[in-house]
Amino acid sequence: MSTSEPDVSGPAHVTRDCPASIADAAIAPPAPGEHVRIFDTSLRDGEQSPGCSMTAPQKLRFAHALSELGVDVIEVGFPASSVAEIDAGRAIAREVRGSTLAALARCHAGDIEAAARTLDAARAARLHVFISTSPLHREHKLGLSREQVIERAVMGVELARRHFDDVEFSAEDALRTEPDFLAEICGAAVAAGATTLNIPDTVGYTTPAEIRALFEYLRANVRDAHRAVFSAHCHDDLGLAVANSLAAIEGGARQVECTINGIGERAGNCALEELVMALNVRSGYFDARTRIDTRRLLPTSRLLSRITGMQVQRNKAIVGQNAFAHESGIHQHGMLKHRGTYEIMRPEDVGWVQSQIVLGRHSGRAALSDRLQSLGFALDEARLNQVFAGFKTLAEKKREVFDADLEALVLGTDAPTLHGHRLLHLHVSTGVGDDSLPTASVRLLDADGGQVSEAAVGDGPVHALFAALARATGIALHIDSYQVSSVTTGDDAQGQASVTARVDGAELSGSGTSTDILEASAHAWLEIANRVSRTRAAAPSPQRIAATA
Ligand SMILES: CC(=O)SCCNC(=O)CCNC(=O)[C@H](O)C(C)(C)COP(=O)(O)OP(=O)(O)OC[C@H]1O[C@@H](n2cnc3c(N)ncnc32)[C@H](O)[C@@H]1OP(=O)(O)O
Ligand SMILES: CC(C)C(=O)C(=O)O
Ligand SMILES: [Mg+2]
């Protein structure tokens, strides 16, 4: 496909259609390109949600990944919750450099001591204290009056300041708090020493216009507001967390609290990858920058999914499998002419290798012809039309048409009988523990009818299997991705293995289906290897192929 640079800038000047602020006159607009701090709370707000628990080594590994991603602040946890939480946080504080490390505490002496102890070894530490401020929470949860809540907040901030200079104060349920009381308690927190004022939409209740106006109001009405950085912490109960966080930035927030993949309480928090890319792609609109290395967004998202077992949905922005995949013919045709037609950012910039053209029921001739050419088949129009008809019939039966299916269509044969190695037998043994040595043996039928057997060991059963296949075929593949998913349900469910490999600079993919996932994996691997050996042996001459019609 064409790889020309997308020009996705859109109209040169986008008019800001912003609601009137409560205190317009008093507020200077934020400086162009101002730094918005990214505060990641995947290890705290994210981890405290169902299905997202992590062990201490997993938290440490993920904290390193967040630091490499370039987040400004990593919230390592809520130390008062358990001894294990303190130990995990301490391990992070000992090792992770490059980001400020924060720990959460209630306005409660014991919590604050635990948080401070956790961050002892951190090079840059922040104590984060919070208390609820909304009438609902004051009355029903805390049983405290306005004055008592302010007293507790001031006590918490002052105690935190005895340990660290960097103290964040959060007014839990701020978006359902009376604005004048919110301004009052924020002012008291600044006077007590808070350097960051976090305004959480704890239950994901607000709207973009409302939160923007609130930030403008607070910046104008909190006593000594200029001494603190304003921060947004939005939840996604109405699916507005990212939009609300962006609006908060427009209202003057210079820190946004978010999580990778948007994990967090209930429907989750503002998704870091979405917020960062919105600021990045629409930089002409937002005038704000972060120091996130965007190419690490996908690897970091994948790491979190692997650690927690919580997969992102296919159509998730930025990091979902479909984020840069195109199946419909009209879009594919446009993409092949200029990828800016249907993509507003480059997949490479967020960690993908490239956009994906998926051939299926909705695809057209342009995409089919492009894929056939990349497989070495240059067909004239009449032959292309003929193959296209066969392709559509096949696509009605299959969800996705793979390269091996296309080769079979063009060559007029069945996919499994295509020239190359075929699997006759495989045996894999594996185990758990220091003494286990995953081992695989395979027997293949080669293109000339001969048989070849090989065995290999590996770090795991699939690794051993692929190593044995490499020995038997004499083809080494650099595997970029390997995925297994079920395509049917029940005891006899079919598993589909998909392998993507990089060979001679090209990305090739293969897939296999079987009730045995190791067999499916072997078929997927062999599909690629057979294509490599065919290409290497002799690129098919277009004339010869056209003659097979
Ligand atoms: C919006 C948020 O994300 S807030 C963070 C939420 N995260 C978590 O709760 C995870 C960690 N929590 C825990 O492990 C436990 O809740 C603990 C260890 C902190 C406390 O456990 P317990 O002492 O058994 O209290 P429990 O959780 O039942 O109730 C919370 C208590 O904290 C009080 N509290 C709640 N928020 C605050 C606050 N910001 N400042 C002071 N006290 C608070 C409540 O009033 C209640 O007090 P009470 O026990 O006197 O009635
Ligand atoms: C503790 C605070 C920051 C929070 O997570 C919330 O209010 O959602
Ligand atoms: Mg929260």
UniProtKB/TrEMBL annotation:
Residues 422-549 are annotated as: Regulatory domain. Mn(2+) binds at residues 45, 233, 235, 269. It holds the Pfam family LeuA_dimer. Keywords: Acyltransferase, Amino-acid biosynthesis, Branched-chain amino acid biosynthesis, Cytoplasm, Leucine biosynthesis, Manganese, Metal-binding, Transferase. GO terms for molecular function: 2-isopropylmalate synthase activity; acetyl-CoA C-acetyltransferase activity; manganese ion binding. Residues 36-298 form the Pyruvate carboxyltransferase domain. PROSITE patterns: AIPM_HOMOCIT_SYNTH_1 (PS00815), AIPM_HOMOCIT_SYNTH_2 (PS00816), PYR_CT (PS50991). Its EC number is 2.3.3.13. GO terms for biological process: L-leucine biosynthetic process. InterPro entries: 2-IPM_HCS-like (IPR050073), 2-isopropylmalate_synth_dimer (IPR013709), AIPM/Hcit_synth_CS (IPR002034), Aldolase_TIM (IPR013785), LeuA/HCS_post-cat (IPR054691), LeuA_allosteric_dom_sf (IPR036230), LeuA_bact_synth (IPR005671), PYR_CT (IPR000891). GO terms for cellular component: cytosol. It is an enzyme of class 2 (transferase). It catalyses: 3-methyl-2-oxobutanoate + acetyl-CoA + H2O = (2S)-2-isopropylmalate + CoA + H(+). It comes from the Bacteria. CDD domains: DRE_TIM_IPMS. Pathway: Amino-acid biosynthesis; L-leucine biosynthesis; L-leucine from 3-methyl-2-oxobutanoate: step 1/4. Its cofactor is Mn(2+). Homodimer. Catalyzes the condensation of the acetyl group of acetyl-CoA with 3-methyl-2-oxobutanoate (2-ketoisovalerate) to form 3-carboxy-3-hydroxy-4-methylpentanoate (2-isopropylmalate). Belongs to the alpha-IPM synthase/homocitrate synthase family. LeuA type 1 subfamily. This is 2-isopropylmalate synthase. It comes from Montanilutibacter psychrotolerans. The gene is leuA.
